[in-house]
Amino acid sequence: MVMIMLFKWTDYDISMDFVETWLDDEAIRVTGLDDGFRDFYEYWANENIPGTNYWCKVVSENDKPFAVITIGKDKENFIFMEFVIAPGKRNQGKGTLILKELLKASKFILGQEIKSAEAVIFPSNPASQKAFEKAGFKFSHADEDGDALYYIYN
């Protein structure tokens, strides 16, 4: 079976400085990556086993990187942790397309099939909420402080 992919998926490494340039004020406000993406990645990569229970993928279109997504795994449940799209590519539906492709081709992209997942999204990030909903995630609940919204995928 030949799988036609819209995007190229590459493992992130800390030499990919261009990811830091995507962290404008808007991205920091809706992600909480105040200390930068590299620090976030290094923390989680040291706490997990990249390629086994933690993935960080750079997404490219026409060989131009424009998004990065991190996913963790707890038992059989995948957890979408951070998802940043370059400023010039936001609000074009790319987030939804990335999520749909990842869910459909997770065995190829991650080496494991995503059967269930969750995403935690800040209430101040309606674009992310919309992208995850269009990709098949359903709102589950808000935390008791209302600071985070939980979405699930089955």
How do the strands and helices of this protein lay out in sequence?
Layout: E1 8-11, H1 18-21, H2 25-31, H3 37-47, E2 54-61, E3 64-74, E4 77-85, H4 94-104, H5 106-110, E5 116-121, H6 126-134, E6 138-142, E7 149-153
Helix pairs in contact: 4-6
Structural commentary:
The structure is a single chain. Helix 4 (94-104) packs parallel to helix 6 (126-134). Strands 1-2-3-4-5-7-6 form a seven-stranded mixed β-sheet, sandwiched between helices. With 154 residues, the chain is α+β, with helices and mostly antiparallel strands. The relative contact order is 0.15. Strand 2 (54-61) and strand 3 (64-74) form a beta hairpin. The chain has helices at 18-21, 25-31, 37-47, 94-104, 106-110, 126-134; strands at 8-11, 54-61, 64-74, 77-85, 116-121, 138-142, 149-153.
Uncertain parts = none
Computed structural class: alpha+beta
Strand content: 25-35%
Helix content: 25-40%
Inertia-based shape: globular
The gyration radius over C-alpha positions equals 15 Å
| Discrete helix count | 6
Q: Main beta sheet, described?
A: 7 strands, mixed
Average of per-residue pLDDT values: 94
Report how far apart the termini are: 24 Å
Number of strands: 7
Strand order of the largest sheet: 1-2-3-4-5-7-6
Helix and strand pattern: EHHHEEEHHEHEE
List its traits.
seven-stranded mixed sheet, alpha+beta, single chain, 6 helices, 154 residues
Summarize this entry quickly.
The protein is an alpha+beta fold. It has helices at residues 18-21, 25-31, 37-47, 94-104, 106-110, 126-134; strands spanning 8-11, 54-61, 64-74, 77-85, 116-121, 138-142, 149-153.
